[in-house]
Amino acid sequence: MFNLTPMVRNLLIINVGVFFISQIFPTGIFSFFNPVLPLGPDGYAMNPYFRFWQPFTYMFLHGGLGHIFSNMFGLIIFGPALESYMGSKKFLSYYLITGVGAALFYSGLNTFDAAKIMQAAYEMDGSVDIQYLFQVTNIDVPMVGASGAIFGLLAAFGVLFAETELMLLFFPFPIKAKYFVIMYGLYEIYAGRSGVESGVAHFAHVGGLIVGFVLIKFFRFDERG
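RE: above sequence
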């Protein structure tokens, strides 16, 4: 049903493989890596579990079956066309850079927001419940999954195949790729600021879109491989 290109197939296998390993071995040696691999919620300087490889490895872990299904569905839908256009090596570089960029963007915003909350708590002589504020502002949402990289693919598809019409299950008529990506990006910004769908790292998605757009527009990822 799907014409999978080589790198898309490899990424699919790796993601699914890591997911099932994490499900089969929830305790034992694999559990040792769980606090290390996911990107921490409070920013690098504020996360005692941070390791330098986390902005890379986090994108291969997923929080549940629905989480990995949605991400891999996006990879299967948008990845083959982009890999065929860019070439396998450039496509892989683009995928990984947008994933890492999304992690850095998300963590940077969280570090900034957490610092403001801690400063407010300090000014109020500790009368503010910092952990509660972290929860209501989504700062404590851990980041795992390929969503940042998938949103990078969305950005590339929206630029390189801007006029392609998409038929979406939740949309009653065809919509051009460029408009779909813009609408989706605006929704993610709204959801991230309003707290809709708490537990979702919306600004990681925004980071993937931004990094992907920059790569396409300024770093020659718009050229055919």
